[in-house]
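quick one, 409 residues, struct below
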Amino acid sequence: MRHRPTGDLQYVQQMNRRLVLDTLLNHGPMSKIEISRQTTLSPTTVGNAIIELQSENLVQEVGKVVSPMGRRPMLLDIQWDSRSVIGLSIVDNKVLGVRTNIAAEIKKISEKKFELSDDIRSVLQSVISELMDGHDESTVIGVGLATPGILNRSEGEIVNIANFPWKSLKFTGDIMNNHKIPTFIENDTNAAAIGEAYFGRGRGVNSFCYVHVGTGVGAGIIVDRHILLGSRGYAGEIGHMPVELNGKKCRCGSIGCLEAYVSWHEVISLLKDHLPKELSEDDFETIVDRASYLNSIYQKGDVAEILEQVSEILAVGIASLISTTDPSIIILEGIFDQCDEFMRALQKNINRRLINFPHDKPLVLTGELREFAAVAGIVAIILEKNGFLRSSESLLETNYHFDIQEGQQ
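---
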């Protein structure tokens, strides 16, 4: 016989509470009698669940039903600001963090640049502290980190990041050791794909690939509204897809990797004769808006041939991804997303490599959330794990609006 984790009565009460909360998430504001009709629970059972949810500040009264006659029942709704989520992401050379409520509305933003020699633990702790400042820690339902690299999700550990010096870094133990809050980690491109699926360009798109080109190259793959992780969680590591048999040595130690030809460091190396002489290699590490900087170089008009070659190699990787996953669109973010000429050249080169593709070629588009995509995704993951996404949206489809203008200070 299958055993429930608690006694039958307690289990039933928990299920009733969950059903009432889900009903308000999906259909609120509602009166108690409407909840009773929707759930088929008795009015007494609904009343008891509401009392419990109100005691936890999860449900509140929001007014009375407009009616020309008779007693007007009280309307109930979720108290959206009663709980918070903190999402963090490592975006090239900075940590970006947000604190949202359970409707994914941003309440505060924090970001800090770092250098490779910095202790990333201190940088992350600083961003978390700033987001938590003056806020009740007990109301935070989760803190999540979107990061590049190979992850051990069950242990909350960053095992290795090819382009950074950090290894065996445990988010829960090394960074969150002073906070008793549930923690989550996810690969940055997977999180960004989820962010775009919930709140951005991927809304309503059944299958798409999110590709980020920056310090490294990675992809998040959405198939039938589900994120593709693979058997070990490493799906989407296209930066280390071989594109040349006996090619350049990659910083990962292998040769001929896509990343060795199209990443930020490689592109800057190719353009070195067209860059200001006074800038050192270290100076390029500190550029925050790399896409804008690269676009300004592109506009000078004497680097088009070099970047055309880069687009041809990137097209090889993306065309292979398209042939494997058959997405509706490709969302490309990173150092090239402001270069319109590059994007057109990339689309042309991808189409040329998909001549046997039976239907329209997938369009290469920029995302809507830009650098906020990964933190939006980690926020969505935490909300879903805690049951604060509407049931009709739990396959990564939502009407919530992740507004990147709100809460900025």
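The mean pLDDT is 86.
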